[in-house]
Design goal:
There is one protein chain. The chain has helices at 51-63, 78-88, 101-109, 117-120, 127-132, 155-160, 169-181, 198-209, 212-217, 226-241, 253-261, 275-278, 324-334, 337-340, 358-369, 377-380, 383-394, 403-417; strands spanning 11-15, 34-40, 67-73, 95-97, 134-135, 138-139, 141-154, 185-188, 265-271, 288-291, 305-316, 347-348, 372-374. By secondary structure, it is α/β, with parallel strands linked by helices. It has a domain at 11-146 and 309-351: D-Maltodextrin-Binding Protein, domain 2. The two termini are 30 Å apart.
Length: 423
């Protein structure tokens, strides 16, 4: 699951930093300073969704004049793509922004990450944060912010139409039908970018079959089994009914944001990282709320089953083994109340950081009620199958597609790359 789109760019902030214990560090920077190279996704600019990164880069610079920091923003998907190549070639930087999951685990298994289990154990944070950046009992980084998917809902449109946030799939369908009758597009999506439809499909599979994904990932169930097929058929039916507009494959994620911001669409199932923009009056004059995804009558999944993952996290690579003290200082600062409080929208895992808006407060409430949080499938599955997964989901938007056959094709790919279903 990718995050909010930005223009892919290469941007470096290089500044003189010092570290109090610098004598123990490798003097790899200018004038004997320890140099830390960090690859991130976002530019540290004035964008609302980049506020934390800007505070992190500039604040760390001011607080640590003995460390030379080189921060490079690679955009999305540039960060993931370049990281994969660099890790494979053992040419990674000291620190990389990461969402954890099995992708991070693959790097750990390959010996590319730095074990900081003991060094990070004292940093205040939620159990979810520690678990997200751990693999096979070892902790490799930090996760100051989380994201969960839910329903962003236009409160004004719903009030005008006499509607309430749906709590069941049947209510959701009835709501969408009423919105269509009123000439309002029920959902914004942005299927052109491939990854945005994943969140809703994850929820539908869960609501139909509970932890069907976990079973398929562990190879006790196929991705072409009933839960996946039935969820795909629900999705396909909604597309055919026009719930996503007349041309969802022609609209990008940026387009979907504008549809919500201008009141052209009533709902969007996406990550809570959008709280910053949807709560920003300069971005939208609409009043938008955040709600849990509905349950399916007769289904297995519960309203307390959430889909989500680390929203902003960082891992240390084995290349930084001689700079461990500087890396830990960077991680401690990244998990500080001071810098985390600069974030205007995301759900924070650090104790003492208040929700920056009522919208983030709503998302945080859904998160705190969650009994389980399933990581984004395209972060929790091996990289060899993640792009094909999103390709398969995109076919649900093509009229006449045999969605079961598409899932059969994907299951064959899983067998080739992960292994067959265990009988």
């Amino acid at each position: 699951m990718k995050k909010i789109a930005i223009v892919c760019a290469l941007f470096a902030v290089v500044a003189g930093f010092a570290f109090a214990g610098g004598g123990k560090e490798a003097a790899s920077g200018s004038a004997g300073k320890t140099k830390l190279t960090v690859w991130g996704r976002d530019l540290p600019d004035d964008g609302a969704d980049h506020a934390y990164i800007k505070a992190l880069v500039t604040g760390f610079q001011a607080a640590n004049p003995d460390i030379e920091l080189e921060y490079i923003a690679l955009g999305d998907p540039g960060l993931m793509d370049k990281t994969k190549i660099a890790m494979a070639a053992d040419q990674a930087p000291d620190i990389v922004q990461s969402w954890g999951g099995s992708v991070m685990g693959g790097y750990a298994d390959a010996g590319r990450l730095l074990d900081l289990t003991s060094e990070l154990s004292a940093i205040p944070g939620s159990k979810a944060a520690s678990a997200a950046m751990s693999w096979k009992g070892k902790t490799y980084g930090i996760a100051p912010f989380f994201a969960i998917a839910g329903i962003f809902l236009n409160e004004g449109i719903f009030k005008a139409q006499g509607l309430k946030a749906p709590t069941t799939i049947a209510e959701m369908e009835a709501t969408c039908d009423k919105l269509l009758a009123a000439g309002i597009q029920p959902f914004a999506c942005g299927a052109k970018d491939k990854w945005p439809p994943l969140a809703m499909y994850m929820y539908l599979v869960n609501r139909v079959g509970g932890n069907a994904f976990g079973s398929a990932q562990g190879r006790s169930l196929g991705f072409d089994s009933d839960a996946f097929v039935k969820a795909a058929q629900i999705y396909q039916k909604w597309v055919a009914k026009g719930y996503f507009g007349s041309k969802p494959l022609g609209e990008s994620y940026d387009d979907s944001q504008q549809q919500m911001a201008t009141g052209k669409a009533a709902m969007q199932v996406t990550g809570s990282w959008m709280c910053a923009n949807f709560a920003n009056k300069e971005f939208t004059d609409q009043t938008i709320g955040f709600y849990a995804f509905p349950v399916l009558e007769g289904g297995v999944g519960k309203a307390t089953d959430c889909m989500g993952m680390t929203d902003i996290g960082f891992i240390a690579t084995a290349k930084a083994k001689d700079k461990k003290e500087a890396v830990v200082r960077f991680f401690k600062y990244a998990m500080s109340v001071e810098v985390c409080s600069a974030e205007p929208g995301r759900i924070c895992s650090v104790p003492g950081v208040k929700a920056p808006s009522a919208l983030t407060g709503m998302a945080s409430t859904v998160f705190t009620k969650a009994e389980s949080v399933q990581f984004w499938w395209d972060q929790d599955l091996p990289p060899t199958v993640t792009s094909p997964l999103n390709d398969a989901i995109q076919t649900f938007f093509i009229p006449g597609t045999d969605v079961k056959q598409e899932l059969v094709k994907f299951e064959k790919l899983m067998v080739e790359n992960v292994g067959p279903v265990k009988k």
